[in-house]
Design a protein that fits this description.
Length: about 200
């Protein structure tokens, strides 16, 4: 596998596609983490799943994360951009259910969102932040060692990992914002993601 030079951080979407199939399990985030961080992430994921409302997770099938999410940002990332992406690019999605998920990894349909309250957690972006998601993301980035991180997270999702960039050393973090646009920024975010997937350039 080519080395990962660019990691793009993006949010999940509240809107998610239904359905899926029985895909082989893969977890690129956990696989790359050192043991202590992997155990921490897996424990937090288990806690979210166990405390979620009964029936919240649709276990009927799995889809790769980039196909599961169906919000406005994702609708501006064409299928060919995902499927013919440059081999040096990885996309990491901040997820209310999983904390972090690589874009190709299979996930179920779920109602969680970092941007909205969910009993008994409260706002999940704050819950994940307070339970160590910034340190987990930092550990992942130090393990993978990309040259550049492109941070395209929206406000609530950036809050879930605030502080992750401390201690990254020579890894450059390029934060992209769309001031004053609010939700109207979603198409712009999608177009930027597609551009990076196709070009392999930050």
């Amino acid at each position: 596998m080519p080395s990962v030079e660019i990691i793009v951080l993006i949010p999940e979407s509240t809107r998610k596609r239904r359905g899926g199939t029985a895909l082989a399990h893969s977890d690129a985030i956990a696989h790359a983490l050192p043991v202590s961080s992997r155990e921490r992430l897996e424990g937090l994921r288990d806690e979210v799943a166990a405390k979620s409302p009964q029936g919240a997770l649709d276990s009927a099938g799995l889809l790769p994360a980039y196909r599961r999410f169906d919000g406005n940002m994702y609708r501006y990332i064409p299928d060919d951009a995902w499927e013919s992406r440059a081999p040096n690019v990885e996309v990491v999605i901040a997820s209310g259910l999983r904390g972090l998920v690589a874009s190709r990894d299979p996930i179920p349909k779920y109602p969680h969102s970092m941007a909205e309250p969910m009993p008994p957690f409260g706002k999940l972006n704050r819950w994940w932040h307070d339970h160590g998601l910034p340190n987990i993301l930092g550990a992942y980035l130090r393990a993978v060692r990309p040259s550049t991180v492109v941070d395209l997270l929206s406000l609530e999702y950036r809050e879930s990992v605030a502080g992750y960039a401390a201690g990254l050393g020579s890894i450059a973090v390029k934060t992209i914002d769309f001031p004053g646009m609010g939700r109207a920024s979603q198409p712009r975010r999608g177009e930027k993601i597609a551009e990076i997937l196709r070009s392999g350039k930050a």
